[in-house]
Amino acid sequence: MDSRARTAANTTLPIPIETLSVQARDHIGRKSEIPWVRVYSQDHSPSATQGWYVVYLFDAYGTNVHLTLMQGSTHVVNGEYKPRPRRELKVRVDWARNALADQLEVRLDRVDSLALPSRKRKLGAAYEAATVTAFTYPAGAIPDESVLEHDLAHMLAMLSTLYLRLDVPGEPSPEVADAIVAGERSAGRRTGRGQGMRLSAPEKTAIEKRAVKVVIEHLRAEGYQVKDVGARESYDLDATRADEHLFVEVKGTTSRWGPDSEVILTRNEVDLHLREYPNTMLAVVHSIALKRGDEPAASGGTLHVVHPWRVVEENLTPLTYRYLVDER
């Protein structure tokens, strides 16, 4: 893409084009039966098996090339690439199409299903299932450069939209993902997966403040007197009503709540709630709407309360350890 096209693309993308990378896999030897060239963000898609990206797919017979918005369609099982479950891919494709509905609507020349015949492997079918949308160019009718640039810019704009979304099905919540990255960095580990923080410090603060506000309003409506003690104690809210005294842990997330949802706890938080049970409450405000930007703002949210809250130690997963090197 030349400088003129790059400048034009930057005016339509929510994220700078300079943050994107290019990777290719050709048809030499056993490298790839379906050659491809993908455009992606290292933070959001550290490999072709992870995350979302825009990719040119060249079918195995050389009859068509497809400019495709898709997700990682395979994963490694026992050292071999295997297609991801169809149901998992469909859930994520449906989510993406819903998130991109307005941008998809303006391009009637798109195709939402591909035909990628392949000779031996099942990758063609996996790519088909992982596709959100595509533009197809027959080998003998490749459009001129201006059309190709326009189509690529449109795909990258949709990719940027997905990258800015936080509620991606099948992925950890932003809070959990960021805690994992922070733990790896604190241990001096180079994050070869290319992961970066999904939430900025101001965004985290906005989410936390919104969650605390929702929980305080709920407790006061239930007749409790509430003090915000999160700045000095190992819990967030101190709630009293008659002879009741509750130690309330508040968590906020932009993700939806489900049976597999997780929250991040510090060691001090775990110790306190183990000690104070059954006078404990976990209050999670999920599905918070986050307006991103220089001054992020959080609104909405749905309250999920566990009371009394018993910390089930088997459900705790250590993210890092502190180790005493005793060589005496």
Provide the descriptors you would attach to this structure in a database record.
elongated, 2 domains, 31% helix, 5-stranded antiparallel beta sheet, 8 helices, Trna Endonuclease, Chain: A, domain 1, 328 residues, 5-stranded mixed beta sheet, 12 strands, alpha+beta
Secondary-structure blueprint of this entry?
Layout lengths: L2 H10 L7 E6 L10 E6 L10 E7 L5 E8 L2 E4 L2 E4 L2 H14 L1 H5 L17 H8 E8 L6 H20 L9 H13 L14 H21 L3 E4 L8 E5 L2 E9 L14 H10 L3 E12 L5 E10 L22
Parallel strand pairs: 10-11
Antiparallel strand pairs: 1-2, 2-3, 3-4, 4-7, 5-6, 8-9, 9-10, 11-12
Helix pairs in contact: 1-5
What does this 3D model show about the protein?
Pfam families: MrcB_N, NOV_C. InterPro entries: McrB_DNA-bd, NOV_C. This protein is of the alpha+beta class. The protein folds into 2 domains: about 5-165, 2-Layer Sandwich (Metal Transport, Frataxin, Chain A), CATH 3.30.920; about 200-315, Trna Endonuclease, Chain: A, domain 1 (3-Layer(aba) Sandwich), CATH 3.40.1350. About 30% of the residues lie in helices and about 25% in strands. The protein is built from 8 helices and 12 strands. It has helices at about 5-10, 85-100, 100-105, 125-130, 145-165, 175-185, 200-220, 265-275; strands spanning about 20-25, 35-40, 50-60, 65-70, 75, 80-85, 130-140, 225-230, 235-240, 245-250, 280-290, 295-305. Strands 1-2-3-4-7 form a 5-stranded antiparallel β-sheet. α1 (about 5-10) runs parallel beside α5. The longest helix is centred in the middle third of the chain and has 21 residues, at about 200-220. The chain starts with a helix and ends in a 22-residue tail after the last strand.
